[in-house]
Amino acid sequence: MPRTPRSRAAAAFGLPLVLLIVAVSGDRPAHATEAPMTNAILVHVTHGPEHPTRAALAFAVAHAALEQGHTVSLFLAGDAVQLMRDGVLDNLAGLGTGNLRELYDGIVERGGRVYLSGGSSKARGLTAEELAGKPVEMAGPARLVELSLEHDRMFTY
Asked: Which of 17, 85, 121, 149 could cross-link to 13 by cystine, CB 3.0-4.6 Å?
């Protein structure tokens, strides 16, 4: 019987190779015993009420990621800081993305963190009174850079 490349390899390496393959591969797939993988996700939002679908989509993605067990931070800059005004939260709905207030409340309830650009907020007249009761943190460009490096994935809307 002629030797095939496989039987030649087995003869050359012998039984230790077979044992090594069995030891490395185990008797079940690795994913069968591992916990689901979670990631830290940063969603950077620069579009506000002038682009309701894009703005709400960012919140929908953040909400979905939290529902899947991921850690999520949102960083709102530019016109997106206006999304934190109650009138906008209550009335903005993108096409096919849902109501912004419901998405925002779900994000906060699930432990999502929300950062607002301090410079963008000041330039658009966003006041402390408008942010009262909202768990947001003012931050600048340096914090956005830090967050991008601390997170595994980053989405930008």
From this structure: 17
pTM of the model: 0.77
pLDDT of res. 137: 98
The CATH number for 71's domain is 3.40.1260.10
Task: Kindly state whether residue 88 falls inside one of the protein's structural domains.
Answer: yes
Q: Is residue 60 part of a domain?
A: yes
User: For 27-51, what is the mean pLDDT?
Assistant: 78
* DSSP characters over the chain: -PPPHHHHHHHHH-HHHHHHHHHHH-SS-GGGTSPPP--EEEEEE---TTSHHHHHHHHHHHHHHHHTT-EEEEEE-GGGGGGGSHHHHHH-EETTTEEHHHHHHHHHHTT-EEEEEHHHHHHTT--HHHHTT--EEEE-HHHHHHHHHHSSEEEE-
Residue 27 lies in a domain: no
